[in-house]
Design brief:
With about 425 residues, this protein is mostly helical.
Length: about 425
Amino acid sequence: MSEEGGSKPRVDSFAALRYKDFRYYLGMRFLFTFAYQMQAVIIGFYIYQVTKNVFALGLVGLCEAIPAIGIALYGGYVADKSEKRKMLLTIASLVFLASMVMFTVTMKSMGAYIHTSWIVPIIYFMIFLNGLARAFYGPATFTIYAHSIPKELYPNGSTWSSSSWQIASVLGPATGGLIYGFYGITAAFSVILIFLLLSISLIYRLRPYPPVFIPKESVWKSLSEGIDFVFKSKMMIWAMSLDLFSVFFGGAVALLPVFANDILHVGSQGLGVMRATSSLGAVITMLAMARFSPMDKPWRNLLIAVTGFGLSIICFGLSRSFYLSLFFLFTEGAFDSISVIIRGTIIQLLTPDHMRGRVSAVNSMFIGSSNEIGAFESGTAAKLLGTVPSVVFGGSMTLVIVTITYLKTKKLIPLSLSQIQTPEKVHSP
């Protein structure tokens, strides 16, 4: 791997940004995430407006999670044995096609050609296609990130990568909510399509990443190697499990359209602000972590962060003030960002190059679709318990999960960043 300018970059807060491929990766991920997050908020609000059914919001998450989880392992296998840039181009093109279809069917001018009762099923199917794309997107980008900077810069790169994702998650929902509220869904989808095209243009700028894994055994045996590796790493499996169950129970984001429309009465503009506020808390915290790393005792800090996440969810559910709700969404995003940085660094450091796609696929099954599965859980719980009780229940269950994890992983709490790379420290006894 060459470095820009031919000299070794300083180990500072901007070290990862000195690498050209990492900057292309960062820009591509920002633009793609911006469009994806913008689409999520307008589709959620549109479906709730059309159906007036909280369970329909849960189905949005389920439609994406089923394919994303169902073929995630195969997506990791393909990523390990494929050229990554070509793979990303195919994925981005599929997402662009799905967005184009949703843009078309939601246009008012199409009302004479497509009956309203068909629009929501068509949108669900396009979300299903997005889930298929995501099964391959995660492993491909995980591998590209690993090859874009030296291994010693992974913690710094993880901070910038996560910050890029979170900044896009601030601007995407806010932009989507505002454009939807003032100009309508057609204008919002036009912006989404533009950003997806810009993302595809940056993928072209990436250099090819040939595979380092040449399969010599059956597909199932190759997939089993990735699963076995994850489950033999005590820190990795507990980190994935902690995130899976905390987001599964504590994911209140899917119910934000209900809070915006029926509880806080702030409309689509307020929904965009609410979605953005959580990510704003994450961005500010991540930028601070570029200077003040949370990796001195990563496992201890991870448990503290998830505890704060659960408490913030509970307080948000109980709040009836829009501004107080924004504060708790801000803290929820801040605590979540800490766990994202720590978990991402741990997984990158513990994963060998030839298994990155498959390990990323296992990670996607635990984490990448936990938001969508959590959205389905939130919609179902809201239908059975009511919106506010379901959010409070979810936050409380997150605290239970943290307690169980703490009791099972006490030996990992005092470990430093250098110590977690020692096999006897992080693998199951």
